Amino acid sequence: MGPITRRDFINSTLVGAGASLLSACAPLERVERFQRAPPPLGAPAGDWYGFGGVGDYAASHGNTPGAVHAAHRIRHGDFDAVRADWTDTGEVFDTVIVGAGLAGLGAAYEFATTMPGAARCLILDDHPLFGGESKQNEFSVGGYRLTAPQGSNGFSIPPTASRDDLAYAVGDAYYYDRLGVPRHFAYSPPTGGAESIRFGNDNYGFMHWLQDRIDISHFHGSGGEGRHARNVWDSDLRDLAVPARVRRALLEWSRTRARPHPREGLEAWLDTLSCKQYLEDVLGLDPAVTAYVDPILAAGAGAASDTTSAYVMYAIGMPGFGGYHTPYLDHRHSFPGGNTGFARYFLKRTMPRAIAGGDTFEDILSGAVRFAELDRPGERIRMRLSATVVRVEHERADPDASDHVLVSYVKDGRVYRLHARSVVMASGGWVNKHVVRDLPEASVRAFDAFNHAAFLVANVALENWRFMHRLGISGCRYDGDFGFACNLRNPMAVGADVPPHDPGKPAVLTFYVPFITPGEPAAVQGNIGRLQLFSTTYADYERRIVRQMNELFAASGFDAANDIAGIVLNRWGHAYVMAEPGFFFARNGEPPAREIAARPHGRIGFGHSELQGMQHWGPAAAEGRRAFNQVRERI
What we know:
seven-stranded mixed sheet; disordered N terminus; five-stranded parallel sheet; alpha/beta
């Protein structure tokens, strides 16, 4: 294998786009057997992890085999009893943070900026690199270094807000200026004809929110007989190959000024409905609108319309609510590695020596991770990677009588134990309910109410993208075997690193792939998605990607053997919490499960992006901050 790709594999097995490709499909026959009562997920399919790119992130793309294996051991009860061969490290920390995603990094930043210098903190994470779903893939193609997000990406520069504003306290604005993130960005100048095409800056806006500003196509057909309809919303969908009634329904959805409920109490009322109920029963729209919305909603919030609260659709600015508000949609941005940029800013502000270089935007985004600095003895804040926490419990049966929390974790096949005066569980509810051994029953029930969606992000490094330039597009939506949309971003320039923006030069095509089975309960949809995600081998996904790209782009000159430089898969088994009706607001005087799950337990606080329902970088960090502040008085 060369330094950049699995080109030899592509040349030998993928280029023949005949029967071998057509037979490479997901194991749906196995899924159908488990729709009603899905079993626990077994071991992932062999050879599922695959090529990881180059650079610091090559060993940590999506859920890693080590993290998945350790999680399965927790579920199987391997750590239900403390064993004599576990090693006590003798360490005592003021705070241990479980999880180095944005919530954990937010908790660490709060510790760093508010605690006295003598206080000590340890961050434990089950992956080889910090960031959670805010990590990146890197490729080296044709002398260029290309970067793309593994998951979380896209942001708007927050407007200046009053520091007394609640939205300021829980949103992006609280951190944006504190971290020192720039408010102006440069993008690579287009050459070679790229200047004739409009690009989005992130991997979400083109799906719907900014499609009037981006050149995208809707592809219809298959087997070489399909066609691309470009910028269909610019012409009131006249070129969209759907029945007239569907066209009318989509236009009605996009333009409605209906006000089916008084403005007061609107949000809580919407949370009593699913998106499907709102679209079809309240607005009276054709079910074809729901089908159009489903993958967009799942890509941004995790689940299909029939299992997602209508409040989500309202809050993320989708059409259907024009009678109430016009969403503010500033021009979106994305760092080269997506929200990896924010994760690196948090780390640089918390552990300055952990990223090589100075304090410039270029150094923070591009500096090498200095792994030796992460867990250096004697440092005020330390981070221990590839360390899966398996037990968290107060040292006494009565949490209020306990001076410490015992934290056990697995690293390099061994179990270690240490003491903490406080713990922040910045991990998801699917972990917390198993790991926190003395968790109150009310909290267990609250976490049990959460269902989670699987997600796949595939980044395809290209030698060139002339086949898209010939179509005049930077993105495409389609009905297909692999995902529903893909796009090229406008490449951000970071200091001296100015990626090419030319159809004859390398780029990364990104697929965001949700797993939805409308009509099934949320828990079943989540299990089916995880089964598909982890039972499909890397080679099978490569075949499906090439087959999909052949269908979309072969007619415009795409050739897999010459145009694909490498493929990285990022599999996230619990990418989103499914925010079902009732997730956000109290009903009949009873608080929602998310509020119960957020309650501290003795010296243990809980903060994760899922508790917000709509997961995003700023609110995720704010959850970590809240959880830390709830237990800091116990230090």
